[in-house]
Amino acid sequence: MEARRSDFQAWLWGELVLGGLLAASLALFVTHPVLRAQYDVPALLLVLETTTALAGLLVALLAATRFSVDALRTDLLLAIGFLVGSLATGMFAIVPVLGGGRLPPAEAWAALLGGLLGQAFLAVAPFVGGRSGARDRALRSGLAGAAVVLVATLLLLRTHAGGLPALTATVGEPEPPGLASAVAVQALLDLLAVVGWGRRLAQTGDDLAQWLAYGFTLELFAALHLVFAPPRGSTYVAEGDFLRLLAFGLMLVGAWRAIRAAEFGRAVAEERARVAREIHDGLAQYLFTLSTHAQMLAAGAPVEEVAPQLTQAAELAQQEARFAILALSSASGTAPFDSALRRYVELLTADGELAVDLEIDPDIRLAPDEQIEIFRIVQEGLGNARRHAQARQARVVIGRRPSGERFVTIEDDGEGFAAEGHDAGQGLRNMRERASSIDGGFSVRSTPGLGTALEVVLRP
Which domain CATH number covers 377? Predict the structure, then answer.
């Protein structure tokens, strides 16, 4: 909470400094008209509009990606808002003038209304909370709906094109009716967005919120420049256009930082879930066995019968606890993995029912996620060889071929099975899924009466 308050205060001071500088420059331009720099450069205007449209599309894409991770409705509205604004600019303000000439009235009004609609989504977004249950469907529906609204707006305006006033003027013509009102609405929406994203920063500490607040502050003063100093013509570039470009640059940086943070958060959550699954599948089972045997002793079962089983369960639980710690570790190297696997083999072969030859290349390097899954695959493979295949000998090799390819093989002399028409059991499915989770290949060869050979080829 203290860190969040500190971030908000830092943003507030930055906002005051930025707003003060922009207000001072606006006042200077308003009071000294000679300083207003407007250039009749249609090509430059087209480049600026194209750049802002592409930047808006990128922000929409990044917001949609973050929505797919966190499912926040705020991100959904962000994606829709930036998409609507960018599409309106591209479809109605850029494409119609690519061949030269003036912008038709219907397209000009469609671009203006589409931009205001997108801005409305962006201004409302910070005030909307909660998460969406159906992420993919909500995203598809929202984006498709935005595109339909834009096309419908253009078609409606074209049917009334004869009564639409021109939205752009040439030098010497009066300002088109409705333009000042539209720009004023744009400025009010920008102000609402600044307040909303500042409020969201104070409540959630969302890093993206402060970048958006800065960006909409620039957008606000870009709109105010148009209110006090309308462009001299439809092909003129003014100060507000450069402020708007800078605003989109800031928002793009913020969106990129946000998606990086969201992906990192998802990776952390997935890692925690994986470790929890490992503890559940391993340690929890042995603890349950310990509890069962303790209850047997309490019920009067002979100590000489229960004690060996209790001791073995305790040793296995201890082994699993060590391996759970390994799962949480991100240290490189395989020494803890080697000792954990050798200890498991010792416990498995202590009664003499199965002999296991374990070979681990001392120079092989395994990533932490590979160590976990390989341990489980070997555990499953040797367990199957002992319980189901009635094997007497098994061999496990974890090594590297001359080509550099890393591999794991598990071979046994058990009963085997016919590969044709064989319905893979749960054990084989588990091993295949574990190999896939670390981007490894999995194959099995088996012949009735001649044993089974499993192989995992690790990622490069």
Answer: 3.30.565.10
Q: How high is the pLDDT of residue 395?
A: 94
State the alpha helices, DSSP H only, in 32-163: 42-70, 73-88, 105-124, 135-159
Nearest to 11 by CA among 250, 172, 319, 237: 250
Q: Which residues contact residue 201 at a Cβ distance below 8 angstroms, ignoring those fewer than 6 apart?
A: 7, 8, 11, 209, 210, 213
Tokens of 410: 């598990």
**Does residue 275 form part of some domain?**
no
Kindly state whether residues 245 and 119 are assigned to the same domain.
yes
**Domain encompassing residue 427:** 332-460
Q: What are phi and psi of 364, to 5 degrees?
A: -75, 145
Q: What average pLDDT does range 244-268 have in this prediction? A: 71
Residue 258 lies in a domain: yes
Residues 341 and 440 placed together within one structural domain of the fold: yes
Q: Which two tokens stand for residue 51?
A: 């750049």
Of the pLDDT bands very low, low, confident and very high (cuts 50, 70, 90), residue 333 is very low
User: Where do we find the tokens 């009963």?
Assistant: 415
Please check whether residue 277 lies inside any domain of the structure. Answer: no
- 435 sits in the region (left: phi over 0; alpha: psi -120 to 50; else beta) called alpha
Q: Is residue 276 part of a domain?
A: no
Average pLDDT of the chain, as a whole number: 76
